[in-house]
């Protein structure tokens, strides 16, 4: 969901008009993107939201499996079908009736506050660097901040929220585009720290000063050509 091309998921599930290729024939097949898409994963996924949180928020439904079996049972599926097949079907039909009632009364799925929070957390984590810059930096004409300080504070921000941060090299490449967009501030190459010079931004300060003044004394260097 975070790779190039993943945005087609929105079109396939959002009712967009699409065209399909006819194998061995000329022409195209018109398709309406009204498909249900199920994605399973053993790890937390992030989406390439590209500032389109609302579109993903309307489409995503997240189901967590937090109670793994105490012991592995390779025959579990067969045992459930043998002993509880009718119960499984009735459970599914009951859920279908609840869903149909939701659409009849409200026009869409009705999610609990906890379910909405799962979606919001995923979207915020997917765009975690932007979220941090909005929360963790503030305009201040008397201050400046180095790129290194931003990275350190960003990692701490994600750790506090239980999010997986972008790799430092990726964040370093994204920051020079995000900060001008959010704050209208261009990067400087002569921010002075600890007797040396760092890259960073004038007119901004960290909301949390714990990571000010380059506490580790090391700059994460990513060549501009990357």
What does this structure look like?
- There is one protein chain.
- The chain is an alpha+beta fold.
- The protein has three domains: 1-61, no CATH class; 64-110; 127-211, Winged helix-like DNA-binding domain superfamily/Winged helix DNA-binding domain (Arc Repressor Mutant, subunit A), CATH 1.10.10.
- It is 43% helix and 17% strand.
- It contains seven helices and five strands.
- A three-stranded antiparallel beta sheet has the order 3-5-4. A two-stranded antiparallel ribbon has the order 1-2.
- Helix 5 packs across helix 7.
- It is elongated.
- The chain starts with 7 loop residues before the first helix and ends in a 20-residue tail after the last strand.
- Mean pLDDT is 83; it is low at 216-226.
How would you sum up the major sheet?
A: 3 strands, antiparallel
Q: Name the quaternary structure.
A: single chain
CATH superfamily of the largest domain: Winged helix-like DNA-binding domain superfamily/Winged helix DNA-binding domain
Mean of all residue-level pLDDT scores: 83
- The count of strands amounts to 5
Our estimate of the beta-strand percent is 15-25%
How many helices? 7
The structure class reads alpha+beta
What are its keywords?
alpha+beta, two-stranded antiparallel sheet, Arc Repressor Mutant, subunit A, single chain, 3 domains, about 230 residues, disordered C terminus
